Amino acid sequence: MTIEPLPDLLLSPVIRAALAEDLGRAGDITARACVPADATLTADFVCRRGGVVAGLSVIRLTLAELDPTATVEPLSADGQAVPAGTALARVSGNARAILAAERTALNILGRLCGVATLTQDFVDAISGTRAKITDTRKTTPGLRALEKYAVRCGGGVNHRFGLDDAILIKDNHVAACGSVGEAVRRAKAYAGHLVKVEVEVDSLLQLREALAHDPDVIMLDNFGLEDMREAVTLVNGRVTLEASGGVSLETVREIAETGVDVISIGALTHSARVVDIGLDAVTA
């Protein structure tokens, strides 16, 4: 599977901020104390446990900030599932630069691989159904574009990126408007022709009320399986149905089999376990 990488323009500010945090006021004083200024190093980024690769560009961009002449040879590809012990990339360049860039690259890469790996676990769990796995806005501040990219690497699809690219009416919006129907009516009147309107409902009664106003998407919030199946029958393909709330690897298959179109899972980005990746020096 070929995944189109994120533009460097999105990655670079995150990497520079992370490097600045790690380098502090004086830079890597350990490397300066122990390693000659002109020393070179070749090393591999190695996956300590199996997972799905995401964010290989991070290695190149992190190292380039400290040694523009360094070389990076990718040995895997974003979206690829690899076993433990796999070398993801080989780097060569100034030893001090590689050592100073190491932790920043490992932190970001491990995080993204973790998100991609958990996403693929959910995607595999619903294999053969019509449902798709999607993320939410429950992302690490500053890393949303990267984490949503990692979701795609794991075979998932992206929900909205921010508050400005789709209208999503939640329970508190409904409370402020007075009813589901009134909230959807106002949203439809406000939205431009390219803006979709989604509304969250927590009962079949609210679902019927929402349907009368023709939203583009209806989110079934914490519905039981029986009500979810009834909702699918009631909607009968008129709108996209999204299931959300408390989804786990143990329950996602049953949810998908109800016939919903999309299953949104905040855990993809807020609870993914980091993939352990290390930097191993290559010796002759």
Automatic annotation (TrEMBL):
Pathway(s) this gene product operates in, as recorded in its UniProt entry: Cofactor biosynthesis; NAD(+) biosynthesis; nicotinate D-ribonucleotide from quinolinate: step 1/1
Enzyme class: transferase
Known role: Involved in the catabolism of quinolinic acid (QA).
Keyword Transferase: yes
A single GO molecular function term of this UniProt record: nicotinate-nucleotide diphosphorylase (carboxylating) activity
Organism, as annotated: Phenylobacterium kunshanense
Quaternary structure note: Hexamer formed by 3 homodimers.
Protein name in UniProt: Probable nicotinate-nucleotide pyrophosphorylase [carboxylating]
InterPro entries (UniProt xref): Aldolase_TIM, NadC, NadC/ModD, Nicotinate_pribotase-like_C, Quinolinate_PRibosylTase_N_sf, Quinolinate_PRibosylTrfase_C, Quinolinate_PRibosylTrfase_N
Family under the similarity heading: Belongs to the NadC/ModD family.
E.C. no: 2.4.2.19
Residues where substrate binds: 103, 136-138, 160, 170, 200, 221, 244-246, 265-267
GO BP: any one term: quinolinate catabolic process
Keywords: Glycosyltransferase, Pyridine nucleotide biosynthesis, Transferase
Positions of the Quinolinate phosphoribosyl transferase N-terminal domain: 28-113
Reaction(s) the record says it catalyses: nicotinate beta-D-ribonucleotide + CO2 + diphosphate = quinolinate + 5-phospho-alpha-D-ribose 1-diphosphate + 2 H(+)
One GO CC term, this protein: cytoplasm
